[in-house]
């Protein structure tokens, strides 16, 4: 009988051990996968695969950044002097527009004359820049081939343009996305924390039992509403409201995202901090009251400090929800990848970007890897928050003891 | 009289045979734009021709075209014509293919109903969507900031609009990217300075479709099924089916069905523009 019990205990112990090991390994594997895919971005070219970028051999410009190439083909940069070259307008030659320079018949029935034609067009025009598949690369090419640089870390973190499908050179500047994410989350937590704390204190300390039994399930119900419903509510009700109230040209703003996220984070903050407040031992409160402290003083000096770690956890979980939330934000913030300057402008967040773009990004391509790199950034942001909480908790413990 | 009856019997026998011969088993893959249309057509066809089995999947035009090359699908549905290098790959593989236009899809440029502007040229649209024109007064409207709504970068509509209206220039980064056409309609209808583009089928009274001019303002054409059909409305794209010549026998009855009167009725009902 006793032996039996021991075996049972051992078995339970084993199950507990395996499940925790499996969980940790899974988390580790996900993180490794994320980093492997994401860091691959910096070994990838932002240009289309197997394409050549070439200029006339007398052109003094030998190096162009991906951003400059995009601006050239968008005709934002129209003169070589803007790039340190001669004062000459830039002539564009892309493969799809070869017929602007020649007839289809001259290219040959199975395009056998294309390489020769490209060579002669580039040789004939000093101010040309050509972009074409390398299988049409002329054998004795007389122009200069420009080096296609990989995506660099600084252009990734410092870039201000996120146009992942731009041709010929995709733009992966994540600064507006990082700032957008932080901006919206910060706003959300600033809105949600005071309200959430107020409600939890009210529920834990002030409200009557009957009222509490009614209010708490209602608040918990908020957590059960799917985020797409919040998003739809935001788009149809909140966005026009914000536009009219602030007299803005557009209602899809960071503020709309902040308010929606604040509402979504509220149930987490309220439930957890209320639970923490209620775990304060009655004996402590009674001692405080017995010493002549008022109810208010007891609350501020005894109950809240005692529940502080629970409240911190609540706010961190709230922030976590706000940073990672995708669907609702995708619907109400407008998703324009611009640097946020006020709360009344559209922003684009990292989760919304990943959700909206991953489905169509070619597997293994630069865009795909860039989205994983965004995932790494998101991961590092949440990791930082967790470390901050741990630090704060540790310091509190030291102070208490 | 007897002759007539014989003739009648003969015709009915032949026609039942003809119907039986139209049993089609095939796979269709490709563009998500064509997907709903193909699905509806396949559904109707299978209802009429028992024993047929047509499977339709999405994935994007490029996916469909590479699938007929590798032989994993019979028909590729595409919202763009085959690119030069795709044609070249087909040629290298020694595979002859056929291209059929099954319908047209037209994009309408829409603004808020209160907007005074009723027509724009292609050049003005390019300026607006690339961010060079930022106020409605620059194009003859009120002094109001222009809010550009676009679809997400993954959408085929995004690429089509970029290629055919914006002359392949990239969108302004201040453009608001919406996850679905429905969201574009909703946002444009509640934002006075808004402009966006949607499929013809999505036009409703809460948004105002603009006339578009591709000849610098001489003639401006309103987006409508008739104008897309007679090819006067410029922002129209053909929707294609591609299949290999060697599998023509297998897929022909279905392709013919789509091009038939009945098939084209479905095209119209689904909000696309019929070929004929």
Give a written overview of the molecule.
The complex is a heterodimer of chains A (401) and B (276). Chain A is built from 14 helices and six strands. Chain A has 401 residues and is mainly alpha-helical. Chain A folds into three domains: 2-43; 51-149, Periplasmic binding protein-like II (D-Maltodextrin-Binding Protein, domain 2), CATH 3.40.190.10; 175-400, Orthogonal Bundle (MetI-like fold). In chain A, strands 2-3-1-4 form a four-stranded mixed sheet, with no helix packed on it. A two-stranded antiparallel ribbon of chain A has the order 5-6. In chain A, a hairpin with a 7-residue loop joins strand 5 (162-163) and strand 6 (171-172). In chain A, helix 9 (282-290) runs antiparallel to helix 10. The longest helix of chain A has 38 residues, at 2-39. Chain A starts with a helix and ends with a helix. Chain B has 276 residues and is of the alpha/beta class. Chain B has two domains: 23-104 and 238-269, D-Maltodextrin-Binding Protein, domain 2 (3-Layer(aba) Sandwich); 106-229, D-Maltodextrin-Binding Protein, domain 2 (3-Layer(aba) Sandwich), CATH 3.40.190.10. Helices cover 38% and strands 23% of the residues of chain B. Chain B contains ten helices and eleven strands. Chain B has helices at residues 2-20, 35-48, 61-70, 84-92, 122-130, 156-164, 181-190, 225-229, 248-259, 261-269, and strands spanning 25-30, 53-59, 75-78, 97-111, 119-121, 147-151, 176-178, 194-199, 208-209, 211-213, 236-244. In chain B, strands 1, 2, 3, 4, 6, 7, 8, 9 and 11 form a nine-stranded mixed sheet that branches. Chain B has a two-stranded parallel sheet with strand order 5-10. Chain B is elongated. The two termini of chain B are 40 Å apart. The relative contact order of chain B is 0.19. The model of chain B has no long low-confidence stretch (mean pLDDT 84). Classes of the chains: A mainly alpha (401), B alpha/beta (276). The A-B interface holds A 70, 73-75, 95-96, 110-111, 133, 160-167, 176, 235-236, 239-240, 243, 249-252, 330-331, 334-338, 346, 348, 356-357, 359-361 and B 60, 84-85, 88, 91, 130, 144-145, 147, 152-155, 158-159, 168-171, 173-179, 183, 186-187, 190-194.
């Amino acid at each position: 009988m006793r032996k039996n019990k021991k075996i049972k205990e051992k078995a339970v112990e084993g199950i507990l051990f395996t499940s925790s090991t499996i969980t940790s390994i899974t988390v580790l594997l996900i993180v490794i996968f994320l980093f492997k895919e994401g860091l691959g971005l910096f070994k990838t070219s932002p240009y289309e695969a197997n394409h050549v970028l070439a200029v006339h051999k007398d052109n003094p410009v030998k190096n162009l950044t991906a951003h400059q190439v995009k601006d050239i083909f968008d005709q934002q940069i129209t003169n070589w002097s803007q790039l340190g070259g001669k004062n000459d307008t830039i002539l564009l030659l892309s493969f799809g527009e070869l017929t602007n320079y020649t007839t289809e018949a001259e290219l040959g029935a199975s395009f056998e004359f294309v390489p020769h034609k490209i060579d002669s067009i580039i040789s004939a025009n000093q101010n040309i820049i050509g972009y074409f598949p390398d299988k049409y690369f002329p054998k004795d090419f007389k122009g200069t081939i420009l080096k296609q640089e990989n995506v660099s870390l600084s252009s990734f973190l410092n870039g201000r343009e996120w146009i992942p499908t731009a041709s010929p050179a995709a733009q992966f500047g994540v600064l507006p996305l990082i700032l957008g994410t932080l901006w919206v989350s910060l706003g959300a937590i600033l809105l949600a924390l005071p309200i959430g704390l107020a409600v939890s204190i009210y529920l834990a300390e002030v409200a009557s039992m009957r009222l509490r039994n009614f209010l708490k399930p209602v608040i918990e119900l908020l957590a059960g509403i799917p985020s797409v419903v919040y998003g739809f509510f935001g788009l149809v009700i909140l966005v026009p409201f914000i536009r009219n109230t602030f007299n803005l040209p557009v209602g899809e703003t960071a503020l709309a995202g902040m308010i929606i996220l604040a509402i979504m984070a509220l149930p987490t903050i309220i439930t957890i901090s209320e639970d923490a407040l209620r775990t304060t031992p009655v004996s402590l409160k009674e001692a405080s009251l017995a010493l002549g402290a008022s109810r208010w003083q007891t609350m501020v000096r005894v109950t809240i400090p005692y529940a502080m770690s629970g409240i911190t956890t609540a706010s961190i979980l709230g922030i976590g929800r706000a940073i990672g939330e995708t669907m609702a934000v995708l619907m109400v913030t407008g998703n324009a990848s611009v640097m946020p300057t006020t709360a009344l402008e559209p922003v684009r967040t990292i989760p919304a970007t990943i959700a909206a773009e991953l489905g169509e990004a070619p597997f293994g391509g630069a865009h795909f890897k860039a989205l994983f790199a965004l995932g790494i950034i998101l991961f590092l942001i949440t990791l930082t928050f967790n470390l901050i909480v741990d630090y704060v908790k540790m310091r509190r413990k030291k102070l208490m003891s | 009289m007897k002759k007539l009856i014989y003739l009648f019997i003969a015709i009915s026998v032949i026609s039942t045979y003809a119907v039986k011969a139209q049993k089609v088993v095939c796979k269709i893959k490709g563009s998500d734009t064509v997907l709903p249309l193909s699905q509806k057509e396949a559904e109707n066809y299978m209802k009429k021709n028992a024993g047929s089995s047509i499977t339709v999947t999405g994935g994007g035009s490029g996916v469909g075209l590479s699938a007929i090359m590798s032989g994993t699908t019979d028909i590729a549905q595409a919202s763009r014509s085959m690119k030069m290098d795709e044609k070249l790959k087909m040629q290298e593989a020694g595979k002859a293919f056929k291209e059929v236009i099954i319908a047209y899809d037209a994009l309408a440029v829409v603004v808020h109903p209160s907007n005074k502007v009723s027509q724009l040229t292609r050049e003005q649209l390019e300026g607006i969507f690339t961010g060079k024109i930022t106020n409605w007064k620059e194009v003859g409207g009120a002094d109001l900031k222009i809010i550009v709504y676009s679809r997400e970068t993954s959408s085929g509509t995004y690429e089509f609009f970029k290629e055919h209206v914006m002359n392949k220039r990239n969108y302004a980064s201040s453009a608001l990217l919406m996850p679905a056409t429905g969201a574009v309609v909703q946002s444009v209808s509640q934002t006075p300075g808004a402009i966006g583009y949607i499929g013809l089928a999505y036009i409703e009274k809460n948004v105002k479709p603009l006339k578009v001019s591709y000849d610098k303002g001489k003639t401006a054409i309103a987006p409508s099924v008739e104008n897309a059909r007679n090819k006067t409305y410029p922002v129209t794209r053909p929707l294609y089916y591609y299949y290999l010549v060697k599998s023509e026998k297998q897929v022909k009855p279905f392709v013919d069905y789509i091009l038939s009167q009945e098939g084209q009725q479905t095209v119209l009902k689904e909000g696309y523009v019929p070929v004929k």
